[in-house]
Amino acid sequence: MKYDIIIVGAGPGGIFSAFELTKLNSNLKIAIFEAGNPLEKRKCPIDGVKVKNCIKCPTCAIMNGFGGAGAFSDGKYNITNQFGGSLYEYIGKNEAIDLMKYVDEINLKYGGEGTRLYSTADTKIKKMCLENGLHLLDAQVRHLGTDINYIVLENLYNYLKDRVEFFFRTPVERVEKNDGGYTIITADGSYDCDKCIISVGRSGSKWMETVCNDLDIPTKSNRVDIGVRVELPAEIFSSLTDELYESKIVYRTAKFEDLVRTFCMNPHGAVVNENTNGIITVNGHSYEDPAKHTENTNFALLVSKHFSEPFKDSNGYGESIARLSNMLGGGVIVQRFGDLTRGRRSNAERISEGYVTPTLAATPGDLSLVIPKRILDGIIEMIYALDKICPGTANDDTLLYGVEVKFYNMEVEIDKNLETRNKGLFVIGDGSGVTHSLSHASASGVYVARYIAESMK
Ligand SMILES: Cc1cc2nc3c(=O)[nH]c(=O)nc-3n(C[C@H](O)[C@H](O)[C@H](O)COP(=O)(O)OP(=O)(O)OC[C@H]3O[C@@H](n4cnc5c(N)ncnc54)[C@H](O)[C@@H]3O)c2cc1C
């Protein structure tokens, strides 16, 4: 079977490349191969009653399937070059912002209309942060919310399904070069194409490495971010979240001069498990619909680690720390801040007596047995720094879930067209190691689609 273009992975990168290709040239024959399920069949078995913890399904309903890792996310589309990836280094700052704005327009057109766009421009919070040794990064953020994000994906699927051939539950095993194009090999058969776009996200990181080895594509090790998810009463952070929704704040620790940053803020949200290659870590999301709001706000505090010589496996380091928490807690561990600073583990009784009700059923334990001292010291310092702008952050009952690990794919060598040294083979989205957010991954999809459509005229 022969296609003009085959896309591997139906996350935001794959979806937006398909969307733009079909808009620019409706005659192109396009197929998308996706390891996971269609959107409506993506159901995590954890129901809190019969199944309380992750049972390690062969493909994770949260990470894999139409919509990719972002399908049940909070749907925060950050329009900025200051975080979320380094796409701008390849395509230029203005182009990157223009593409993110274009993605925003499509999201609004396909169900996101009426959702709020927050901005750090002209905020007094920036000054307040600076006065307390904290740095607020500039961004606009469209908050779709988990519910509207789902509707946008449904609408995009309804648009694409008659224009693109979908192969769900069909992980691509290998990509081989053929005369003038590529052969995509799956357990069910082989498919040829002139051009191939790989957009396999973080869950496809190990597979991406094998593709790079097979096709002789150079890679570089990337960083890994390690930390905790903080959960506290929503009122404590409301001065930030009411105005900005999500704020990316960076703090340089006094002790080690390490940078600690806030990440993925979810006002009135819920803390959730995340399964990456069988390792359980923590994440968070929230709904746009007020009926689904919780009383808590959650956000991550992360420290980046980058290894190069002689040890290069930054992700392996992060995985080992996450495995340790899985070994001690059977999954994610939760600890009260007051227990952590007093050097004692949390137990079920102390958690239930606390004034913050956990939104995730995690195992009470001791994060100091899991997270390296230097990282944990930085996190504790930052909690006290945040307490100055949002008093109450350092309360004893503030909950810390661990570990939160942000794995980054190794950086694949691609050129300014996001094309590998094998002509016609493009690597986009988080799978390239270049992006790590919904907006950057989606923008990279549009960018490559425009380049391919132009070159196939
Ligand atoms: C719980 C959670 C919340 C998040 N919240 C936010 C947020 O609010 N804002 C934000 O900017 N980012 C958020 N992120 C990150 C965001 O989801 C990702 O940056 C984004 O989805 C990356 O898009 P992508 O297309 O590159 O990859 P992905 O979304 O990971 O999609 C890749 C797809 O490829 C498929 N695949 C992998 N290997 C193969 C293979 N061999 N064959 C076929 N298919 C394959 C996978 O099944 C997957 O569906 C969140 C992530 C999680 C997990």
What does this structure look like?
The chain is α+β, with helices and mostly antiparallel strands. The protein has twelve helices and 22 strands. The chain has an eight-stranded mixed beta sheet. Strands 1, 2, 7, 8, 9, 10 and 22 form a seven-stranded mixed beta sheet that branches. Helix 1 (12-24) links the parallel strand 1 (2-8) and strand 2 (30-33). Helix 1 packs parallel to helix 12 (438-455) and helix 3 packs across helix 5. It is globular. The two termini are 22 Å apart. Flavin-adenine dinucleotide (FAD) is lined by residues 8-14, 33-36, 64-65, 68-70, 73-76, 78, 84, 171-172, 199-204, 207, 264, 274, 283, 285, 429-431, 436-439, 441.
Main β-sheet, spatial strand arrangement = 5-13-14-17-12-20-18-19
Number of strands: 22
Shape: globular
* Biggest sheet layout: 8 strands, mixed
Ligand identities: flavin-adenine dinucleotide
Beta-strand content = 25-35%
Q: What class do helices, strands and sheet pairing give?
A: alpha+beta
Q: Residue ranges: pLDDT <50 for 5 or more in a row?
A: none
Count of alpha/pi helices: 12
| Radius of gyration (Å) | 21 Å
In short:
Helices cover 31% and strands 26% of the residues.
Secondary structure elements and their pairing?
Layout: E1 2-8, H1 12-24, E2 30-33, E3 76-79, H2 88-91, H3 93-112, E4 116-119, H4 125-131, E5 134-136, E6 140-143, H5 145-160, E7 165-167, E8 172-178, E9 181-186, E10 189-198, H6 205-214, E11 219-220, E12 224-233, H7 234-244, E13 249-252, E14 259-266, E15 270-276, E16 279-285, E17 296-305, H8 314-329, E18 333-336, H9 337-341, H10 348-353, E19 363-364, H11 373-389, E20 399-407, E21 411-412, E22 425-427, H12 438-455
Parallel strand pairs: 1-2, 1-10, 2-7, 10-22, 18-19
Antiparallel strand pairs: 3-6, 4-6, 5-13, 8-9, 9-10, 11-21, 12-17, 12-20, 13-14, 14-17, 15-16, 18-20
Helix pairs in contact: 1-5, 1-12, 3-5, 3-12
Flavin-adenine dinucleotide binds next to helix 1, strand 3, strand 16 and helix 12.
